[in-house]
Amino acid sequence: QEAWGPGGYYDNFSFGVGIDKFCEIALMPYGNVNHNALEIGSGGGVFTEKAVWNFKTLTAIDVIKKPARFDKFPASFTYIELPDKSTDCPSIEDNSIDFAYSFNLFCHLSNEALCEYLKSINKALKHGADFVFMLSDSRHTSKFQKGNLGDLLQMGHFVQDLRTLDIIVGKEWEIVNKDLLPDHRDIVVH
Question: How many Å apart are CA 47 and CA 83, to the nearest integer?
Answer without folding.
Answer: 21
